[in-house]
Design brief:
By secondary structure, the protein is mainly α. The chain has 26 helices and no strands. Helix 3 packs across helix 10.
Length: about 675
């Protein structure tokens, strides 16, 4: 029960962290989550979690890196393979060598092998932290991809170096040729095993589908299990599970691109499920990190053999050394490329951004906690608590430094030419969002090739064309016409609601059907009008419906019969349409005549459909397959905007304008 309550509290803190970030957007979410984790651990009713590194790697690192491998552009990774490999391999081993000797020189109580182990576990950058920072400060594209590729690869190299250093510290024996050969076998084996396992699991999904098992839930579950299966099998064989899940994600993306007929429903459910899963895992990583900090700090604070200020000085010195070493590495590489004539000379600002962006994260802390408690002769591992404290301190300090200085470096305004490019970027992003909705709609129409669904694409395209007209957002006449149309529509909805309640009081329409119809009216009004009082009224109506449902009668047979009485519902809707036409007509004047006439025509078209028995379901909700498909396309567009913002492809301003565009498109659809 205690573990369940702790997990429940952490999930609640994830939501709190994102709410707090809305009020203090200049503080990245990971730092907020670390602080909340610290608070949750130190309050009187604080939580306590045993940090198990192996469980942490499989539960968090495996799915997160699998997703990173799945969504990272493969062509860009290949084009940037040289700097990525030099950072993921060369810089890692350089860090182990240089920082290892520096740590041993600075803190002689830590043996040389243990110093190498600490340097090795500090060498990998954190993919989750890099993604969070990149989404906030919108790093330049090439730097962003290099950091992503580096964080995908350097976890394996850093952990392998860490394992050899720990083995050397415990046994006192180390062989460089054997270590180099083992590293090649472990890395290459991990990539191969991950690709093969991912391919086999994808083929299994196709095999199951051929037997007619199209249950989306089963296939999504198989996708979620994929990174865990790959990691467990790879580690059991003795190869790198981290590189295996990265290779598995890349193979999954390749197979997805090669699919002849994409399953749009499966993709929609899969994207939504992974979105929730990754949101939770990303938050839990930093919250658990924060929960672990007080325990580490407590051990160091009460250790009389250590000076707390000296420990803080060690953290500052190690963090500075890592940044300087990283800067020197990328500077030498950029100068070499410039000397060879392969690229222009990199500006110092780009080198600083790359250096400061190398933040450490959960992999570093998990590795530090995996240090054994005792040596081979059963004596305690030397300075284990100090090593863990130094690792935690470097993680926090690197995040703080990146949070402060990256916005100053990457957030500066560029010259006017860049502003023009920014405007072009918004138009390009809008085209991507529009294409996402159109592709989704086309896919849904292929899955439901009914003749009555075919006009949905033309109607959707027509709405987009109207919104994309030049000066569509700034045309005062068009905006005034829209506002008057919304006012007329709201007047009609109010008349519909009054007529519905009158029919309910007379007993003309069954109560369950009336509840469904009123719910649709409230939803339509909330979409059309974003005023605060309308939203409050909508919320109160929802609460009222919930309580009325709780205390309603239990005659299920009578309710079921009432819900199925579609004829009474159809007649009620006809009466509501007539009441709405009368209300809109009575409020018509010279100023709003055009807008009101359009609303009346819409009601008259609905009357004709209802008179012919079309567009009605048994539970009192208008069944419009075209509307359902268009709303799914709208949701796909919203997901695309969020994905582009998280990937750093667009900034917050463009994301806000794109969301406004999608909201206007949805409102236009609901107005019909």
């Amino acid at each position: 029960m205690e573990t369940f309550l702790a997990v429940l509290l952490l999930l609640g803190l994830i939501a709190v962290s994102n709410v707090v970030n809305r009020f203090v957007p200049f503080v990245p979410v990971p730092l907020i989550q670390i602080v909340l984790g610290i608070v949750a651990a130190v309050v009187p009713t604080g939580i306590h979690l045993e940090f198990e590194p192996e469980l942490f790697f499989i539960l968090f690192i495996a799915p997160l890196l699998f997703n990173d491998g799945k969504r990272t552009p493969r062509d860009e990774l290949w084009n940037l393979r040289a700097p990525i490999l030099l950072l993921a391999l060369g810089l890692v081993f350089a860090t182990v060598f240089v920082a290892g000797y520096a740590i041993h020189w600075m803190i002689p109580s830590i043996p040389l092998a243990a110093s190498f182990a600490l340097a090795a576990i500090l060498s990998p950058t954190d993919a989750v932290a890099v993604g969070a920072l990149a989404g906030r400060v919108h790093l330049p594209g090439s730097i962003h991809r290099i950091l992503e590729g580096e964080s995908l690869m350097n976890d394996a190299s850093g952990l392998v170096a860490f394992k050899f250093a720990i083995a050397a510290a415990i046994t006192g024996a180390f062989s460089l040729p054997q270590a180099a050969l083992s590293f090649v076998l472990i890395a290459a084996g991990g990539l191969l095993v991950g690709a093969v396992l991912s391919f086999l699991l994808i083929r299994l999904s196709v095999f199951i589908r051929r037997f007619g098992m199209e249950d989306v839930t089963v296939h999504v579950l198989l996708q979620i299990l994929t990174p865990f299966i790959i990691y467990l099998v790879s580690e059991e064989i003795g190869v790198s599970g981290i590189l295996a899940v990265v290779a598995g994600g890349i193979m999954y993306a390749i197979e997805k691109d090669r699919a002849v007929s994409p399953q749009y429903k499966l993709q929609l459910v899969s994207a939504s499920t992974w979105s929730v899963l990754l949101f939770i895992l990303n938050g839990l990583v930093f919250l658990i990190l924060g929960v672990s900090v007080p325990e580490v700090a407590k051990v160091i604070y009460y250790d009389e053999s250590l000076n707390n200020f000296m420990v803080f000085g060690y953290v500052l010195a190690i963090t500075a050394l890592l940044i300087v070493l990283r800067f020197a590495w990328v500077y030498v590489y950029s100068y070499w490329e410039y000397w060879k004539g392969r690229s222009r000379k990199a500006p110092v600002k780009s080198l600083l951004i790359t250096s400061i962006s190398g933040v450490r994260g959960a992999v570093t802390l998990a590795g530090a906690f995996s240090i054994p408690l005792a040596m081979s002769d059963s004596t305690p591992f030397p300075e284990r608590d100090l090593i863990i404290a130094l690792a935690a301190g470097v993680i926090l300090l690197s995040l703080i430094i990146a949070s402060i200085f990256l916005p100053l470096l990457a957030g500066k305004k560029e010259p006017a030419a860049e502003l023009v490019a920014g405007d072009s970027k918004e138009l390009a992003a809008r085209s991507v969002v529009i294409d996402a909705g159109m592709s989704m709609l086309k896919g849904l129409m292929l899955e439901n090739p009914e003749a009555r669904n075919q006009p949905a694409l033309l109607e959707f395209t027509d709405k987009i064309d109207k919104l994309c007209r030049p000066n569509a957002d700034t045309d005062p006449a068009a905006e005034e016409l829209r506002k008057r149309g919304v006012a007329a529509r709201l007047s009609g909805l109010e008349a519909e609601r009054a007529e519905l309640r009158r029919l309910l009081e007379k007993g003309t329409i069954p109560a369950p059907v009336a509840v469904k119809m009123e719910e649709m009216l409230d939803h339509t009004e909330a979409v059309l009008c974003s005023r605060f009082d309308t939203q409050v009224k909508f919320s109160l109506s929802e609460i009222k419906r919930v309580f009325s449902g709780l205390f309603a009668g239990s005659d299920t047979a009578e309710s079921r019969q009432a819900i199925q009485n579609a004829e009474s519902a159809r007649q009620a809707k006809l009466a509501m349409c007539q009441a709405a036409i009368s209300a809109v007509g009575s409020g018509m004047n010279e100023e709003n005549r055009d807008a009101a006439q359009r609303v009346i025509e819409k009601y008259e078209q609905l009357e004709m459909k209802l008179a012919q028995g079309e567009g009605w379901s048994r539970d009192g909700v208008i069944a419009d397959p075209k509307l359902e498909m268009k709303l799914k396309a709208i949701q796909e567009q919203r997901d695309k905007v969020q994905q582009m913002y998280q990937d750093g492809a667009i900034n917050l301003r463009i994301a806000g304008r794109l969301r406004r565009f999608v909201n206007q498109l949805e409102t236009s659809i609901w107005e019909d």
